[in-house]
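Contributing new complexes? Match this layout with zinc ion.
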Amino acid sequence: MGTPDVSTPVWPVGKRCAVALTFDFDAEALWIGNDPANADDPGVMALGHYGARVGVPKILELLSEEELPATFFIPGVVAEQYPGHIHAVLEAGHEVAHHGYTHIPADPSIPGRVEEQIDRGLEALDKVAGIVPLGYRAPDGVSSHLGQRLLTDRGFLYDSSLKDHFAPYRIILQDGSPGPVEIPEQPTLDDWAFGSSSSVSYKVMQSKQQVLSMWNDEFLELRTWGGVATLLCHPQITGRPMRLSTLRDFIAFTRTFDDVWYATCGDIARNFVAYE
Ligand SMILES: [Zn+2]
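Output block (do not edit by hand):
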């Protein structure tokens, strides 16, 4: 067995690492996916609705001020429910990618579910915005070999669901053939872990300084390694006042280096393919 490959990827000229700002716009669908009974609880629905009502507009405002590109992963039902949001994201020049259809885990043990979630999500993004997404992120992080095969068959350029590297790489399917490019995540760069708490999802919340310290430190080492810092935020969390200021300060920190490539996941995947 050979030595595992941890070589530094090739980035655009003058760049040493990449920052991918990504937003999972789950809205109410996340909570209904967790428990269908939540649909009848206005208190729980409000958590998701905040992401649509305030989170996405505030995040778009910040990205515009910073003149930075981002990738929005959006479930099909959310695209259908909030078509104006999808159009606003696209008109601002950001990327829209696939995030399932109803935000339920695509469990391969349930016949037809994985395929249905991918295909209905594709139909919704086409119907609402006329787009064919380049990439996919698994709702609740539930991936499967069947899902990776279907993404490949449907022509997806990339996946961004796994946490098994610090840099983009090519997924190898179970039969040994090439799958999509993976844009990996780090658990420390996911706002869900420490940014919100509620009666249906209790967590210990962390302060701005704690989160910023973690994000900055993770970014610093990823930069040294020449990796990609895939920041995974949710508008219903990072769209809250203190969380948005955390994101603003994190961006400011990364800007103190002149060798950071800010890019959409699609552009990062294309760059990987160009040097593969
Ligand atoms: Zn999600």
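Reviewers usually confirm one structural detail per submission. For this one: The beta strands are 17-24, 71-74, 95-98, 135-136, 158-159, 169-172, 178-182, 228-233, 260-262.
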